[in-house]
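Dear U.,

For the methods section draft, I wanted the exact inputs and outputs in one place so we can describe them consistently. I've listed the two proteins in the order they'll appear in the manuscript figures. Please don't edit the token lines directly; just add comments below if something needs changing.

First protein:
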Amino acid sequence: MVNINQSREFRKLHRQIAPILFIPLLLSALTGIGYRLGRSWFGMPKDTGKIFMNIHQGTFLGKPLEPIYVSLVGLGLIGLVITGLVMIKKSQQSRSSKAQSKLTVRSIHSIIAPIVFLPLFASAITGIAFRVGESWLGLSEEQIKFLMTIHQGSYFGSFGKPIYVLLVGLGLIAMLFTGISMTGIFRQRRSQVTKSEQIDD
């Protein structure tokens, strides 16, 4: 059972991690969707697809840093997923006796989170394991091919795989934008801009 203090710590950790990972996770989602749909539906050339994968995996940082980048982003996503679910569970318990509130950014975030939890968790774990296994453990692609099968939803077949990637990617993007709006960063920036404009006047 998570007490109030633990819940506050989870919320604090969640809000600290989210802004840091916003850009890396957004790039990961967009390039993952772009690569899979491009290759599966639009005949994207391999050279173009490689550019998407270089961004997706952080290859632009250099080969030695690629597994570190993937691991940090993946572990960050896992941290967000776990702390987020704990927060949502606690929030639902506290509102169980109250009437349902109107649809807000927070409620949308809370609705999407349990739906995308398992796919995002599986995607993060398999992405880390594949990159670390190939880069640091010297495993061949054949040996760890099953990880990419899970990562990309290949078990849904050639028709279902791009749809799976699209839905998971859009789910992550929705979580990122609803989550970042809840941190109040945009409101803070707007207030800072307004203050600076008032000073200039």
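Second protein (the one for the lower panel):
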Amino acid sequence: MSCNQPNNKQKENKDSVANPLRVDVIANNEVQHLIDSFVKAYEQRNDAAVNQLIHPDLGLTIIYRPGVADTFTKIETFDFKKPIPAYYAYPEAKSSYNLTFDKLPDYDCATEKWNKVGLYCDTTVRPVQLSQIVAFELEFEPHKYAKEQITEIQKSEKDSYRVILTGENPLVFHLQKYNDNWYVTVLDRAYGGCDA
């Protein structure tokens, strides 16, 4: 239960939804530039460079796992010295991989290995992790989120893609198209970890 990782077929249906923007994204060098810029800024632990890739209206949502279930919080600016959650420092990430537009790698908690290694962005699906977290939390706290918050999350996911850099300390984040430009909007600190 602590792994909380469904099999590949369930995962594909559960964590993503088909996305019609595939051709537009692959043809758009802006997406590749944003991914490369974010990975580089994160590797260099450069707060200023990371924050330039975050739109002030969108902020950055951090997904993390304080126990068995994932949750998230939204911040306006990113700071390596102020991790979320505070007890879990942002680990180093290293990449020598070129970006590949392909199906995202899966992490297997039983073997503690990725099914493939590299830097991947899947432009055929959109992430729905935040909607899943909201749905789960609403089961226990029916009034935790306003209808407007839920609608905003669902709308943002429709314009987003998920990126995974595999490794001992994976870097998992989402990109969102907003006002005809792409920004980093989510940092997923929960995926690729199997502790509860």
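Candidate sentences for the figure legend, describing the second protein: The two ends are 8 Å apart (CA to CA). Residues 1-13 have pLDDT under 50 and may be disordered.

Thanks,
Y.
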